[in-house]
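Run log, item B.
One chain of 257 residues. Sequence copied directly from the ordering sheet:
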Amino acid sequence: MHPQRKPQDGAPAAPAAGPSPGIDDRYAELLRRHIDDPDVIHQLGVFARRMYLSKTLGHFEIYRQVADLPGDVVECGVFKGESLLNFARFMEILNPGDRGKAVIGFDHFRGLRDLTAADGTAAHVGNTEGGWNPADFAPTLMQLIDLFHADSFVPQKPRIRIVDGDIRETAPRFAEDNPGLRISLLHLDCDLYEPTLAALQAFYPRLVTGGIVLLDEYGLAEWPGESRAVEEYFDGHPPRIEKLGWLTAPGGWFVKE
């Protein structure tokens, strides 16, 4: 589930996250007061809302389960890069000596495109053509990735790779061009039916036994496309999908047996 963000390309505004929409603005105002203080980088946690920290902790719980498995983290649907960078940070913390592991992110950074009937009509959450467009932030994300690499244990060995383009095209091509690819964690956050199905078709066969598929919008009524893609890929009989009970999203996860 996405937090409140500024709409772009004519997309409608998304609803405010949580029961108290004014809280985001109040936190932002406090942050602005200290934005020129270099020490704020070391204190960003004091500005983090509980609900957003909860999702980070949830992602850490999932990553911990695959940290000792071979294979990369593949994320389909990067948006502004929060989970991408967090998975890379977890990797640096838990796998500092394994420089072969990487986080590979797939996105075209143009927002939602080519919605189908399978994606529903819930425009009130930005589920519309051009919604959730991170294009203005993409250059900043690339700079943040460069900073992450400069700050890593082995700066000359990058952890993060971005594959820019339509996932429906880039995922199968990447899998074909990289026959040695093995995946320990497949994070699906495409929001929509077609790219989610394409990602499963390309990458699920590369997921190692014991690896995890993490589904951001599974079971969320406002985003029906992801659930439909998962159930269609598994012919109506998906594996047992579990939930982190303290979070709305990720919507579910399962282990490849």
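Observations after the first pass:
- Residues 3-18 have pLDDT under 50 and may be disordered.
- Helices lie at 22-33, 50-66, 82-94, 138-150, 167-177, 193-203, 224-233.
Flagged for discussion on Thursday.
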